[in-house]
Amino acid sequence: MFFKKFGIPLIISLLVLSGILVAGCPAEVEHKPEISIGYVTWDCAIASTHVMKEVFEQAGYNVEIVATDAGPLYAALARGDVDFTTNAWLPHTHEDYWNEYGDRIRLCRREYS
Predict the structure, then answer these.
(1) Cα distances (Å, whole numbers) of residue 103 to 53, 57, 75, 81
(2) Segment 95-113, tens digit of pLDDT
(3) Exposed/middle/buried for 92, CB within 10 Å: 0-12, 13-18, 19+?
(4) Considering all CA atoms of the chain, what is the largest pairwise distance in Å, rounded to the nearest integer?
(5) Which of 22, 64, 78, 82 has a CA between 20 and 30 Å from the CA of residue 8?
(6) For residue 41, what are the contacts with CB-CB under 8 A and spacing of at least 6?
(7) What is the pLDDT of residues 48-64, one digit of tens each?
(8) Are 37 and 86 in contact (CB under 8 A)?
(9) Number of other residues whose CB lies within 10 A of the CB of residue 51
(10) Cβ-contact 53, 72 below 8 angstroms
């Protein structure tokens, strides 16, 4: 008697509620990690930036590339507005920027000296 009076309506309510919840849930969207690459508009930086963009996209990243002048690039790196650059002319050409922002930027590798 208890089951007929409360059990069947309870089960029906749970099934309806489950259907509503499942229907209201969007399909799972693949979240791609994001990365931003800053560069100055010099031929060497343009080329290496686009190569790295392609590498990261093939690895599944959404990539934003940001073209700017050297001073704003170093400031953006120091603030974390861009994740990295492929090109720094150290120790001389970008020396002043490095002296100002270098304590907040990690130099990963030096190709030429």
Answers:
(1) 26, 30, 11, 16
(2) 999 999 989 988 887 665 5
(3) exposed
(4) 90
(5) 22
(6) 67
(7) 999 999 999 999 999 99
(8) yes
(9) 11
(10) no
Q: What is the number of residues in the chain? A: 113
Looking from the CA of 35 toward its CB, the CA atoms found within 13 Å total 16
| Encoded tokens for 107 | 């130099």
Structure tokens at 104: 């907040």
* 91, burial (CB in 10 Å: exposed 0-12, middle 13-18, buried 19+): exposed
Residues whose CB falls within 8 Å of the CB of residue 104, separated by 6 or more in sequence, listed in order: 77, 78
Could you identify the residue written with the tokens 């990365």? 35
Q: For 10-63, what is each residue's pLDDT tens digit? A: 566 555 555 555 555 566 667 889 999 999 999 989 999 999 999 999 999 999
